[in-house]
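Continued from yesterday's entry.
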Amino acid sequence: MKTNLAPLAVLALSALLISGCQVAPPQPPAAGTGTEQAQAQSPAVKPDPPPPPAEIPIPEDSLYPLLKAEFLLRERQFDPALAILTEQALKLDDAALARRALRLAEFRQDDAKSLTLAVRLSELDVGDAAAATTAMGLLIRAGRPEEALIFARTAKERGARINAPALLVSWDSLPPEKRRAVASAVEALAEDWPQDQDIAIAVAYLRRAQDDPERALAALEPVLAANPDEERALLLWSQIKLDIGAQQPFSLLQASVDRNPENEALRLQLARLLASAEVLDQAREQFAMLLTLSPRNGDYLFSLALIELEAKDYQAAKRNLQDLIGLGQRLNEAHYYLGRAHENLQEEEQAIEAYDQVGPGREFYDATRRAAELRLNSGETLEFRDGFRRSRARNPGQAEQLYAVEAEVLREIGEVELAIDVYTEALDLFPESMTLRYGRAMAHETLEDIPGMEQDLRAILELEPNNATTLNALGYTLTVHTDRYQEAAALIEKALELSPGEPAILDSLGWVYFKLGRFLQAVDLLTEAYSLFPDAEVAAHLGEALWASGKEQDALTVWRNSLEREPEASHVTDTLERLGVSLDPPAVD
């Protein structure tokens, strides 16, 4: 077998190494004398063929891996082949190999390897603009715009067009120092390529992000002067005009649509902007025109139906949603919003029927909940339970969550014991479900069955000892309903270690410290919790801790501020009543 390896390798690797190992290109013949040129042009005299290109041999330790990769590709084992080709592309100075590996990585949608290989290819082939633009795009997708800008410049230097505005997609999530670096690099690109429209649009995006609308508009002026129908520039110009509350913010976009009445992309941008600005009548008109251009476009029909729902034209919304269902497009969304239209028209039976048609997806659980609530509102308790049973039978993969929805609806209407029955039935089928067990624990608390609640929470902690939410819930329950404060404090302290700075946990720990008489620590923790989450319950706790610490005026201020936000907040009013405190201003003599 060993004697046949070399010929096999040559055959298998021939396609791979066409340019990779024949790296010395043919040289043009040297200029000769006039006689020699005449002879070269004479049909009777043929020039000598150029010498074959010099070959660079494959290193011995790469021969077998490359051969193996070829056979893996023939067997359609793409991922192991890609791993080998990537390793070899990083090892060998062979642009063709790197390019082939990159194509395979892109085919496998492996962004990490694609980025590695694009960077490698850009290094190996200094004329490959596509490699630089690929590296730029992948770095943008990875949220690394400052590195992407390096390859943006490389691509421009190699003569490529770049999607410069994409460099700013992650601007809002960048820390200040990275924003400064990105802004500086984008401005530098604009200085070096002042006529580049893509970069000019990126500058406009940058200046809008920097809250400088006038300079953003100025950056767009030359772009729109050169190309009045440039879609991205028109869209950004309109958005900036909306930002500053300008009159007729859509005038340029509308003019472009008028010039290009069959340009669906432009008209769609106008329709969406009108809808986002709540200019509903004009948005409806534009979507209606889009449907004239593409009558079977379900996306246009769906958008028009949503606008009609927003405009409270429920009958029109129904017609369009029924047409959408007739087209067989976006069925789950169509049935869900058809149910919403029926519900707004007080057509409960039709709404339930529509909601029941919604399958697994984004709207599924809300549709199920709405159908259940409508059945309960109609007094159909048995049908309520049967509806969930049918849904679980149709969608067994969603059974656990459907049990949770059923129990939550029962808890919300005060049928807590029935909710516990549902949770118990579900836990027989899904004994390790944290969602179901935690839900039953909260139902036990509603019934003031603290032992039952503690049992469920501890069962969760047996499976997940570091579940911070459950640790906090158990600790707070023990604080409020028992005098086991030391045990509660230990649980909540562990929860805070796992989730530092979480307001709910800070509040729980502050409250248990208060119960333990550790007033100063309690005030510090509750103050931090209140600054992060000024909730009425936290305000009640903080006020009482301040009051007990002798800081009555501070306590009164916290309570007053909370009641100004939520006048009926029972946590605060109950605390005031229990302490015998009045917030009435003192009488003036």
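--- second protein ---
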Amino acid sequence: MAVLRSTLSALGFALLLAGCVSSADCPPGALATGAAGEPAPEAGSGVAALPLQEGRQQMVVTANPLASEAAREILRKGGSALDAAIAATMVLTLVEPQSAGIGGGGFLLHYAGASQAVSAYEGRETAPAAAKPDRFLGPDGEPLAFEDAQSGGISVGVPGLLAMFALAHERHGRLPWRMLFQPAIALAESGFPISPRLHALLAEDAMLRQAPTAAGYFYMPDGTPRPEGEILRNPALARTLALIAEEGTDPFYRGAIAARMVAAVQTAWRHPGDLALGDLAAYEARAREALCGDYRRWRVCAPPPPSSGGVALLQILDLLEPYGLGRMAPESPEAVHLVAEASRLAFADRAAYLADADFVKVPVAGLLDEDYLEARGDGIHRACSMGPAAPGTPPDTVASALPPAGFEPVSTTQVSIVDRFGDAVSLTASIESAFGAHIMVDGFLLNNQLTDFGFRPIGDSGPVANRLEPGKRPRSSMTPTIVLDEHGRLAAVTGSPGGSSIIGYVAKALVAMLDWKLDPAAAAALPNFLNRNGPTELEADTPLVALAAELQRRGHDVRIATMTSGINSILVLPDGRLQGGGDPRRESAALGD
């Protein structure tokens, strides 16, 4: 069946190139929504790639040079990829506080070179036991504005990152737990220079400067952000990390740190929440089976629910496989059109079905069923857009109520590591929005991950799958990804921050590296494009904006947008060499040995 689909699609694509498929072949009205004939926006010069790094034994790519240096230091001491990921993330808690840290959560994929096994670990935040589904509705019954809901105690979920690390370290660590915190402790004590990106985000954030503890740390007495390059010390975080290094996660989940987190949430400067000591003590990270699927000759693995990223990514790749994207130019309208159409089908299913599988029946097998996806793929037309897609009906399922479209922030961080033992880690971690809930405790910021739940608990046809419930994990888009070759050997490690755009960013990176044979640095710098079952989004100030008129002619509602991905990837070449490349839109750094 796959061969037949591929043959027919190749024939149809050839006909399209020959001009035999025209707008007359499109479904009625498909071209009516575009703005055909409007002049294309002016194209920019594109995003300059960071230098490609190579190594023979090990490679690290993170969102900050100081975090990459800490990870490489651990690797050079004989640490594993997992050890290095922990060390990097502790440093990111300090130097990239807007994106991630111990006050948040994440998803981690681990590849064991000796056994060729891929494991998934989940440290997604949970809702407090006292949480009610209407938490984010105002007195009038309407959803709060996202910016209003974000800041304060009601948005804070139980942090899961440390518990996930402890679980994974038991299985994949090589160095003692306490050693992994030393680089971050030393840096917190001596201080680090405020980066251009951190300074810019501080300048933009009107709410953070009102937060009592955080304001004193990040801002001058007159309310201006501390200047770029100033050495910022965080002795409170140094003490916190030293305690966790010596005593493990107990102080964080059951001891003094837990008590201070609970007090900060319950007496928050705005929207006091109901996080309790029992919520922290009851938290459990999960070891889950990685979600893997075939794309051409590769095996692509990503996390299962409550991340929506794995299912959506594998759907997109399966829907694209018949078209042979390798024969298309990376910035061609044909490629952008097909990726957008496959993505809108995946996002329609994501909205209907994906949530915490402990609370909602998530038909993962049905959503990835070959016959189901073949039928879904029939909706893709090579010449024109289908417009907004409806969810499908996978085998033995009925769609849940659809939540209204909501705002999804674009914070988060990506860590990609390969060690000398042949093991690899792809970690995506987050505190949700920039600076999380704007609540600082013991030197770190708390997450606002509960805003990843649907604000309206009831839709037109009943309860929303991703509604807030006590103890539930909100749906995520985090998509840390590991790719294997046909022999089960490591081929690539990738992932990105970016809210719900993560799925599109990772899909772009994989197509760029696997189909278009771009190196990791070039793949990250390639202009971003995606579709979340709405407008087809093209990255502003890049050559892609010149495609707007042609895509509109095909029926796409085109939007030009700033798309701040953070794609950090590693490729394993046939001779065993490692190539590492980071995203130039952030402060990524790749280091290899």
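The first helix runs from residue 2 to 17. The radius of gyration is 23 Å. Will compare against the first tomorrow.
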